[in-house]
Amino acid sequence: ILNVEQSPQSLHVQEGDSTNFTCSFPSSNFYALHWYRWETAKSPEALFVMTLNGDEKKKGRISATLNTKEGYSYLYIKGSQPEDSATYLCASQITGANNLFFGTGTRLTVIP
Amino acid sequence: DAGVTQSPTHLIKTRGQHVTLRCSPISGHKSVSWYQQVLGQGPQFIFQYYEKEERGRGNFPDRFSARQFPNYSSELNVNALLLGDSALYLCASSLQRTSTYGYTFGSGTRLTVV
Fold first, then answer.
1. Taking the CB of the first residue and of the last residue of chain B, which one, N or C, has fewer CB atoms within 10 A?
2. Which of A44, A98, A102 sits opposite B98 (nearest CB)?
């Protein structure tokens, strides 16, 4: 079992604020880091998959960075909107394994 | 195009019973993985099937089994249900066995064991 940790566990921000969360993972045997957005009663939606140290990816107001040497990834949301309210999951993938190791998620609530 | 579909969406079972959960992957996807999410935790890997063969197994007891059919749909079976098996069961599909393009998840089956 891989220890993937996310912080904070939950977060409340005002509409328009920018925010960020952290995902920590073991750097040994690293293969890929996945971010998912999961709204209540829906299916987890893939946001980013990153593989290279220093990778930065962006999708609209959401972006992510990756540091494989120290084993962390940041997810940033610029100008949060109520529709950004969801649980954000990160998952690590290691070489030789076909599955994902998930963190417990960061639950974001954006207050209008 | 339909996404990953899972059935049923909810069910309630009694301790000791068995249950079968079903998953249809995205058309063309040959890999199906099953995850269990208990309240307050992240999803935990149960099985992966690719091309109808088991390619990975998580740390779950032998009461859990699965299979993949020629059309790449999959079933997860759990025997002798325990209260602790109450969870959301997620199915994910991908084109290949190992994907760096992300996995597509279904919305899950909520199993309650009483």
1. N
2. A98
